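User: Can you predict the 3D structure for this chain?
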Amino acid sequence: YDYRSCDFKANFRLAVSHNFCTSISAPTDTFRLKDSVAPAVFPMLYATVDNGSQVSLFYQKSDSTDTRTYHIYRSKNGGAFSLLASLPDTGGISRRYKDAAVDPMNDSYCYEIQAEDSCGNLSAFTKTHCLIQLDGHRENLSDSLSWTAYSGFKVNKYYIYRWKNGGWNKIDQVSPATQNYLDTGLQCNITYSYKI
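Assistant: Here is the predicted structure, written as structure tokens:
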């Protein structure tokens, strides 16, 4: 017997028919049927800084067909996570959420997501993803860069980009254990921008 409901009470009786005769059982005791199965865990793919005032999160939908809502939580500067947004399930596999209430130049952010189904059951949280926060200091004809490690997936390399001639140019790459870099041979009175 298959019945879809969040929470209800019911009695059951069994009827058996043969030719023109029907036999009906006595009713069962009252059963409480409750859906307590949480939605399947799903992955947050990555989080990235789009610009100085926006972060994008990319995640895949839960495999559970009755998922209705995705709750996005954010932590700022290592503080407690708080609910940022609740988004309806709109179909499709890959999703993107834009957080435009951020200041990634001065603050660090971490994110995690939880799914909720039509009965209010909550999935486990996704793996927490924490953004890179890049800092830089001007030195003698060089720029000293340092950054926080990305967390949420295994990092194989960090690629360092510098803005030049109207575009981003990769200038070097370092191992995941390295979180600083000295860019040398620069010119005076020129503004340099970087991203990792």
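The mean pLDDT is 88. The CA atoms of residues 141 and 188 lie 7 Å apart.
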